[in-house]
Design brief:
Layout lengths: L21 E6 L11 H12 L5 E6 L11 H4 L3 H7 L6 E5 L3 E3 L14 E5 L4 H15 L12 E9 L3 H25 L5 H10 L4 E4 L34 E3 L10 H13 L1
Parallel strand pairs: 1-2, 1-3, 5-7
Antiparallel strand pairs: 3-6, 4-8, 5-6
Helix pairs in contact: 1-7
Length: 274
């Protein structure tokens, strides 16, 4: 497959002559569905956080390298090493992080905690969703592979990788491109994960050394944790109580109502940075 790999011009502006740079790589492709409307708050928060570190740079990736209607953006992000190489960007480690996140300005530099391994955070959200996803994807695509243990299942929205993982990512790319029709069909059928459970299985299958990092770096499923104040659903009055519970706030799996993702991302960013 011939790929047209592009990245926005702004992302090429790197801090001068710094070696061993760590990259925060945020996919923010506009699919004209309105979903990414609040994501600029995420980009701004990560850039402001990175300003305090000489070895951290934020890259916003906006141009898909394949047709998103066939190859979802969550799958395309596994070409991150190719995108960085294409744009002549040197780096030590790179964090793949979802664009529906806001980082606290006082968050520690987690790049120092990976121990040179594949850095992830556990998926501490809805266990019914996790176990159903593990079983159904496993039964259909990984029949000969032991089922992932739910307590070892990581969230795909926070992954720290390095050049040592390029061979593994090549295998991931090959798997996706070889099985894309089957994956797309199962996505419609299972409705529990696009790439997340697959990458968990592929990591296990390839015996990738993992560092499980603190949940504070990827505080997910805030609604299910009862950390979002929803009128009629919460006993506490403080809308931003979750700020006491972690460093990176992941606004996933929030019910559609008048306080959806846009509300929480804007509210959180303005509280922390303005």
């Amino acid at each position: 497959m011939v790929l047209d790999i592009q990245i926005i011009t702004e992302a090429r502006v790197m801090k001068a002559n710094i070696k061993n740079k760590n990259i925060v790589f945020i996919p923010n492709v506009d699919l004209n569905d309105g979903r990414n409307n609040p994501y600029h708050y995420s980009i701004l928060s990560w850039k402001k956080w990175a300003e305090q570190y000489n070895d951290v740079e934020v890259i916003e990736w906006v141009d898909p390298i394949m047709d998103p209607s066939t190859f979802k953006i969550t799958l395309q992000r596994y070409w991150v090493h190719d995108i960085l190489k294409y744009n002549n960007i040197e780096y030590e480690q790179v964090l793949l992080v979802d664009a529906d996140t806001i980082i606290h300005p006082n968050c520690p530099n987690f790049f120092t905690e990976t121990k040179g391994k594949f850095g992830v955070t556990l998926n501490n959200g809805c266990y019914e969703w996790v176990t159903r996803s593990i079983k159904q994807w496993g039964d259909n695509l990984f029949k000969d592979e032991p089922k992932i243990k739910p307590w070892e299942y990581f969230n795909g929205g926070f992954q720290i990788t390095s050049k040592k993982h390029i061979p593994f990512y090549k295998k991931v790319q090959e798997y996706y491109t070889s099985n894309i029709d089957k994956i797309n069909g199962l996505n419609e059928q299972i409705k529990a994960g696009t790439d997340q459970t697959i990458i968990n299985y592929l990591t296990q299958q390839n015996s990738i050394d993992i560092t499980y990092m603190s949940e504070a770096y990827n505080l997910q499923d805030l609604f299910r944790k009862n950390l979002l104040h929803m009128p009629g659903h919460s006993w506490f009055p403080d809308e931003l109580r979750f700020l006491e519970s972690g460093w990176v706030y992941h606004f996933n799996a929030i019910p559609q109502n008048n306080r959806h993702v846009s509300y929480w991302m804007e509210r959180t960013y303005k509280k922390l940075y303005t």
